[in-house]
Design a protein that fits this description.
With 416 residues, the chain is an alpha/beta fold. The chain has two domains: 2-158 and 300-373, Rossmann fold (3-Layer(aba) Sandwich); 161-298 and 386-403, Rossmann fold. The chain has 14 helices and 19 strands. It has helices at 8-20, 23-27, 49-68, 92-105, 117-129, 164-176, 194-210, 228-237, 247-260, 273-276, 278-287, 310-320, 329-348, 353-361; strands at 2-3, 31-32, 35-42, 72-74, 77-87, 111-112, 134-136, 152-154, 185-190, 213-219, 241-245, 267-270, 291-294, 303-304, 308-309, 364-367, 370-373, 386-391, 394-399. The strands form six sheets. Strands 1, 2, 3, 4 and 5 form a five-stranded mixed sheet that branches. It is globular, with a radius of gyration of 22 Å.
Length: 416
């Protein structure tokens, strides 16, 4: 069920009607008959809508698979899963408001996360206040896990890891060419949001380790619609590596303007390539050689009993949603988050939120998405990031080397 702002009067009236029946009705809304209700405020409109919809489809795919396999068993009874969604409109304040609505008016006791670190940062204090466990899949900012939250659990790797592998790869390339890693010149353009600023912090830390020179360090404009000022400097200063992070809209803008301005930087890495569908938008030739960090790839050797291998998940998801040529990692990790909830319900053997919180904290499972094990802070410590390169229109893992499905093509040779 998807509820947007225009439906709010109807929803409010309906909730008021439930409240009139007594507090017991609201309290039991978390489990309705044989159905466990999860809740999520997610970006279905606004600047994060592309990835919000990717995540929602990942949630729904998992729910359908789990229900088809018999659901989850609690105290000897089988239950199906269902998710109630509200559209947070890509606005943190709206997300926090809707989290309050899900908990206080809809009686939801089990939360799935929103899309983006900014929205997760807005909602986490709400779920923490009410001691409602939240398993999130789309908020990677490392600062989320320094707040002492006890009810927040994230299946994805933290943001400082996203582009760090590209720094190590640039150092490796320089050394193969007989240069020093410290000779590498870096240009950067990042959105001014929690996720991208954490990505930037990881890049800066790693660049310092190698003594690399950051020659451009720009913020993307608020609307993420134009980065020509950065790219003009790139053409003049000729860096060895260009790094971009601005979620899907920023990746789409970068892909378009790199093509339009015929940027020939030998190595370019950007977040959210797949989610923005840069190959579909700009063609294999124009995107040839772009490096794209990813939480997950269908070529990795992960597998589980429900989804099968990473490749099987990819294939099955495409059958359900044939519009996807490449399944973005945002979708895969959303699916994994629902799987974590299903596992926790069965291990806790209870609907009690504190028992479920403890079961979530003790999670140690392998999935098609990778290992999932939470630190005391709530972040996943069992899964690495990988780096893919677009080669002939395909996304192929090139780093770290032990996961590589192809050799790095350097320098990139796009066809503009």
């Amino acid at each position: 069920m998807i509820i947007t702002r225009k439906h709010m009067r109807t929803v409010t009236a309906a909730v008021a009607g439930v409240a009139a029946l007594g507090l017991a009705a609201t309290a039991e809304a978390k489990v309705e008959g044989d159905t466990i209700i999860l809740g999520s405020a997610i970006s279905l409109t606004g600047k994060y809508a592309t990835n919000g919809i990717h995540a929602q489809k990942g949630y729904e795919f998992a729910v359908d698979k789990i229900n088809a396999a018999g659901g989850v068993t609690v105290d000897g009874k089988s239950y199906k899963l269902k998710v109630t969604y509200y559209d947070d409109e890509s606005t943190p304040a709206r997300g926090a408001q809707l989290a309050e609505r899900l908990i206080n008016q809809d009686g939801v006791k089990y939360m799935l996360g929103p899309y983006s670190s900014g929205l997760t940062k807005a909602i986490a204090p709400v779920t923490e206040k009410y001691k409602i466990p939240m398993v999130e899949a789309e908020g990677a900012s490392r600062s989320l896990f320094t707040q002492g939250y006890k009810y927040l659990f994230a299946v994805l790797s933290t943001s400082e890891q996203y582009l760090a592998s590209s720094i190590a790869l640039a150092a490796e390339v320089a050394e193969k060419q007989g240069k020093k890693a410290s000779d590498v010149k870096i240009a950067m353009a990042f959105e001014n949001d929690p996720f991208s600023l954490d990505v930037r912090a990881g890049v800066v830390d790693d660049a310092k380790k190698y003594g690399m020179n950051i020659v451009i360090d720009d913020k993307l404009p608020r609307d993420l619609s134009d980065m020509t000022s950065t790219l003009t400097k790139v053409k003049a200063l000729k860096p060895d590596l260009l790094l971009v992070s601005g979620h899907s809209k920023g990746a789409a803008t970068a892909g378009r303007q790199i093509q339009e301005m015929k940027i020939d930087t030998p190595m370019i890495a950007m977040t959210h390539c797949e989610a923005a569908d840069v190959v579909g938008k700009y063609g294999a030739g124009a995107t040839e050689g772009l490096l794209c960090p990813t939480q997950w790839s269908e070529t990795l050797s992960y597998k589980d009993d429900l989804m099968g291998s990473a490749a099987q998940y990819h294939s099955d998801f495409q059958k359900t949603y044939p519009e996807y040529k490449t399944v973005p990692y945002q979708t895969a990790q959303a699916t994994a988050a629902v799987m974590v909830w299903a596992d926790a319900f069965e291990r806790a053997n209870s609907f009690d939120t504190d028992k479920l919180r403890d079961a979530l904290a003790a999670t140690d499972m392998m999935t098609f998405y990778g290992g999932i094990k939470f630190s005391e802070a709530g972040n996943n410590v069992a899964k690495p990031m990988v780096l893919r390169q677009i080669q002939d229109g395909e996304y192929l893992v090139v780093a770290p080397s032990k996961w590589a499905a192809a050799e790095l093509r350097h320098p990139r040779k796009p066809e503009y």
